[in-house]
Each structure stands twice: as C-alpha cells, then as structure tokens.
Amino acid sequence: MTRLPEDLLPALHDALGEAGLITDAERMQSYLSDWRNAYRGQAAAVLRPGTTEEVAAAVRLCAQAGVALVPQGGNTGLCGGSIPDASGAQMVLSLTRLKRIREVDVANATITVEAGVILQQLQDAAAEVGRLFPLSLGAEGSCTVGGNLATNAGGTAVLRYGNMRDLALGLEVVLPDGRIWDGLRGLRKDNTGYDLKQLFIGSEGTLGIITAAVLKLFPALRSLTTAWVALPSPQAAVTLLGQMRGLCGDRLTGFELMSRKSLEFVLRHVAGASDPFAEGHPWYVLIELSDTQPDAALNDLLEQGLGEAFEQALVLDAVVAGSQAQVEALWALREGISEAQNHEGPSLKHDISVPVSRIPDFIARTDRALQQAFPGVRVVAYGHVGDGNLHYNISKPPGSDDAPFKAQAEAIMRVIYDSTLEDDGSISAEHGLGQSKRAAAQHYKAPLELELMRSIKQALDPAGLMNPGKLL
After folding, report:
1. Which stretches make up the FAD-binding PCMH-type domain (predicted)?
2. The last residue of a domain, from among 338, 362, 381
3. Same domain, residue pair 281 and 367
C-alpha cells in the first residue's frame, strides 16, 4: 500500500468533519464491494462530504497529494465502476450525504437536486407538485442521481422520455483540481459553444464529480393501461412496436421484450409469480400506454392495436391488467428476471444495443453461434426493445459445473460482442463500462474514438486521479 502524506488525513478531517471521514476498516467494508459482491477493492479512506464545497475541498487536497478518488453513489452498478482497486492507495468519495432538493420550478418544469438524492425520492418530489420525473429502473429505491448521470442511465421509459442525457439541462461539477463549475442552468436553449454537461454525463466520474443537476419534469400521468402479450418471434415484436407507435404516438411509454426462458426462470424462482397464460409461448412483450388525461381511452387504443395484430398473426395471446395489483404483478415478471437468473448459477450479463430493426437478426444469429460454440448454454434475452437495448445474458447448461462455464466467459463475450459489432451496435447500452468492459472497449471501439476520449481525459484530468482504471 502506498503511504499517504502524513498531513492528508488530518486535513481531510478538518475539511469534512467527523461524519465526513471513515478510516475504520470495518466501517469501510460496505463501500469496498458492489451489491452483487462481484467486485471488491481496498481504500485508504472513505470520504463523505456533505456539501459541494466540501467535495471541492476533498478533491483539492487529494489532488495536491496525488491520491486518486473513486466516486460512489448508491453503489448499484453492474460493471464495478464505483469500486476502488486492490492497492489500498485510492479513496472512495461517497456522494450520499449530498441529498438536498434545492429547487422545484413548476413553471419552468425543472427540479434541481444534489447528487446523493435517491431516484425514488426525486420521483416523489416531482409527484408532490403534480409532475413526473420519468426515469424508472429496478434499483430506483437505492440508486442516486449522481450515479444515474455518471452512467447515463436508461430504464423502462426511454422509449418516450429518453435517458438521463436527455433529461438533464444543467450540472454542477467539481473538476479534478477542486474548482467548481456551476452549470446549473435550466435552459432548453443555450447556443453559446460546447455543451459541457454532456462531457460529464456518462463519463463514470473519470472527468470530474457531479454534485448537482437541473433535471426536466413532465406532466403527471393520470391514465395507464398495461398488457402482457404473447408473440411467435422477435420479428413480430419489432413489427408490433412500429404499429403501436403509429397508432398511439407518445402514449406508448413501455415496450419490454422477454424470451420464454426469461419467464421460466422467474416462475421457478420468484415467490408469487404466475404465468399470465395457460400455455407457454416463445416470446412476450409488456406494453404500457399512459396519458396525462384522467379518462383517456387507452384500453380502446390498446384493444384496437392488438386486434389488428391478431388478424396479422403477430400476436398469439394477450391479457390486459384490470387493476393496479395486476399491473404490478405483470411488471414484477419483467423486473424479476435478473435476480431469478442468479438462482440458476453463474450469470454472464451483456448489456448491448443494436438498431431496433436489427434485433431479430441479432438474436437469431447470436443464439445460433453460441449453441455451435458452447452447446447447452441457456440464453436469457430481454430488454427495452423500443430503444434497441437487449440484456443478453447467459446461464450455464443444466447440471453442469460452475468453473468450466466461468472459464468460458471471455470466449462467450467475444461471440456476443462480435455479433453486436456486425449490426453497428454498442457493447454497453445503459450500464457503462466500469472495469468489467474497459478492455473490451479497447477492442471494439474505433481507434479514433479512443484517441479523442483520451485527449479529453488528458485535458481535464492530466494527473489521472479521477476514477482511474475505469472506462479507459
């Protein structure tokens, strides 16, 4: 372990106070591994500033001492982006004490929040003034705004509202030298040069520390209808998506694709889960329509769209939720897939995106290639088909040992990512690169893209102290 300057910890204690500095090994443990325990590291200390000024002071002191910082929000990521390395020389910078909602501007349809605000708290704050913050994902009860921005989170409503890059108007950022960039402007038009906030969104804390953001609000939704639909193929899903968008426009807020294998895992391992249909079908979509009007005729629209699809043999069966409890039960089938797969042994998770039109070919081609190279592996494919994002996860063959399967992880990944590249896709749609996909990015991203990214990193963080070993 690299020795810290003797005066650094006392200086950090003076700057952050007793609540802002953790050096006790036992108290640090929860900050040193991710929620899946897939990544674990060591740290010289955990810093917990309570204000932007304290973040700036901590960053400045560490920069002067040459100590690297690893920003951390709710620690719900899947790629190890918020976990320090094993050296014990880095410090974790937790933003969870920055949890103020600074301003709600109803007339401007914006809300200004600090990085440690939990996503669900942000949603609730919007609802209190009759507005909607639309980002929704499985970890919304524990993930934070800062982490959502740092990874450009997507979720289930991207189809209508976009991801965090689309939902952010302004940022406040502590730069690697400790200066504070105040870009907290709630403007939808600002054509005065480079859009600096976009550098930091999706940068995984490698260029600076996001401490606050101005985010868009939308009208509250007062009508909702949800359907679980059985389909013969991914191509039927893509065709149905186009028809429902043409019929419903922006009322179509959710369109989630799931394979039969995905549902089987949920039915097997999630308590209370039940199949909406009496018999199994190859593929399913979960469709959600919503409207700001309290009595919008959404069921009529849904029935019209599904009726036309039945006539074209695109739909095999469908059930429309008749109550809020049924809506929650249907969404639980979708949201339970990732956890259910973990009960089947090691899970190799791949978060990819391809153009929506290419999803059927991608699935068919990649399924075939995997079975040829790794007979018996089980593909668990599901995702936000409306924006081309598939969670294309792999489980071991039934009854096989874990170790040989894990040993094939790199080769399996190559098959999937090579197939993704054939469709001009991305190896990370919404989870980021972190440390798990850093090496793969060097192989699959264009050399010029990597050169430009390194140039930006060098310009903003020449000492390389912001989340080193991640993304690049």
Report:
1. 39-220
2. 338
3. no
User: Residue 231 forms beta bridges with which residues?
Assistant: 283
Assess if residue 213 is contained within a domain.
yes
Range 273-306 burial, b when 16+ CB lie within 10 A, else e:
beebeeeebebbbbbbbbbeeeebebeebbeebb
Q: One digit per residue, pLDDT tens: the chain, 472 residues?
A: 567 899 999 999 999 999 999 999 999 999 999 988 889 999 999 999 999 999 999 999 999 999 999 999 999 998 999 999 999 999 999 999 999 999 999 999 999 999 999 999 999 999 999 999 999 988 899 999 999 999 999 988 999 999 999 999 999 999 999 999 999 999 999 999 999 999 999 999 999 999 999 999 999 999 999 999 999 999 999 999 999 999 999 999 999 999 999 999 999 999 999 999 999 999 999 999 999 999 899 999 999 999 999 999 999 999 999 999 999 999 999 999 988 998 999 989 999 999 999 999 999 999 999 999 999 999 999 999 889 999 999 999 999 999 999 999 999 999 999 999 999 999 999 889 999 999 999 999 999 999 999 999 999 999 999 999 999 9
Same domain, 332 and 258: yes
Q: Which of 273, 305, 338 is the last residue of a domain?
A: 338
CA distances 393 to 315, 377, 406, Å, are 25, 10, 13
Q: Is there a single domain that holds both residue 55 and residue 88?
A: yes
CATH number assigned to the domain comprising residue 309: 3.30.70.2190
Is residue 186 domain-shared with residue 228, that is, in the same domain?
Answer: no
Structural domain of residue 209, as residue ranges? 101-219
- Cα gap 16→11, rounded to integer Å: 9
Residues 81 and 119 in one domain: no
Domain CATH number, residue 124: 3.30.465.10
